[in-house]
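[Discussion] Sanity-checking designs against the backbone

I'm trying to build intuition for which residues belong where. Below is a structure token string of 247 positions. I'd appreciate it if someone posts a full sequence so I can compare it with mine line by line.
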């Protein structure tokens, strides 16, 4: 006769596992010694070895119970065939993931970006904030990703604008830097805004404007009080010079 620690060691499991099998009915409770200890024989060891081999193949404990049932109504080959199909699917998924990881390692791409966006920003050396905006925009406003990319590229005239706004990332509305930066931004606007806006917009242009407005509102949510105040000042400056903006 074997005690629980001895049979567990022979079967390659832990005593805790053996007790668990007793609780779920996968292994019958053995007789106990006069001292109250569980006492196991060869049949119990054989059962434990069967359980360990089947679980090592990937069977769940419920499937193991079915496979070892005494009713004879369970086709073990059918269980194994289903398990093989499941493992083949996992193998295919593992291969797909490894291919993605290989591409990420090759190019040094951000693994949290889609392959298309990762390729688009590769080599642009964008700030993390811009990367975060693009990551969100690809899902929320995918039609604006290309235009945003064009605006944050190293050669874009908007690049200097972004850098000036970034200087106010930690500023409150009363920060003395706000008015200075707002003045610099206002001076840049004539070279950034289009000068050939039509009197009437087409349906596509109207949709684009609406999308851009929504994009702007989403960005405002993440701006510091100082950045939002700088934009408010731009509007105020523009209202003082309506003739400059054709209004």
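Best answer:
Here's mine. Compare freely.
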């Amino acid at each position: 006769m074997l005690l629980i620690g001895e049979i567990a060691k022979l079967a390659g499991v832990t005593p805790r596992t053996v007790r668990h099998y007793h609780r779920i009915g996968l292994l019958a409770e053995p007789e106990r010694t006069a001292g109250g200890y569980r006492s196991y024989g060869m049949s119990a060891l054989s059962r434990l070895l069967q359980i360990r081999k089947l679980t090592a193949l990937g069977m769940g404990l419920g499937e193991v119970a079915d496979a070892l049932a005494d009713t004879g109504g369970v086709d073990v080959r059918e269980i194994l065939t289903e398990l093989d199909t499941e493992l083949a699917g996992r193998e295919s998924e593992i291969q797909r993931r490894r291919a993605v990881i290989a591409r990420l390692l090759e190019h040094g791409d951000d693994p949290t970006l889609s392959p298309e966006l990762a390729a688009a920003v590769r080599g642009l050396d964008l700030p993390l904030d811009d990367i975060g905006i693009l990551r969100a925009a690809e899902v929320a406003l995918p039609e604006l990703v290309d235009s945003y990319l064009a605006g944050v590229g190293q050669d874009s005239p908007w690049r200097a604008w972004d850098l000036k706004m970034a200087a106010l990332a930690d500023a409150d509305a009363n920060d003395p830097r706000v008015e200075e930066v707002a003045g610099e931004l206002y001076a840049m606007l004539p070279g950034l805004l289009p000068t050939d806006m039509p009197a009437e917009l087409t349906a596509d242009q109207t949709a684009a404007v609406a999308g851009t407005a929504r994009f702007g509102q989403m960005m405002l949510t993440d701006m510091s009080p100082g950045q939002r105040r700088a934009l408010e000042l731009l509007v105020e400056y523009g209202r003082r010079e309506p003739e400059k903006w054709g209004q």
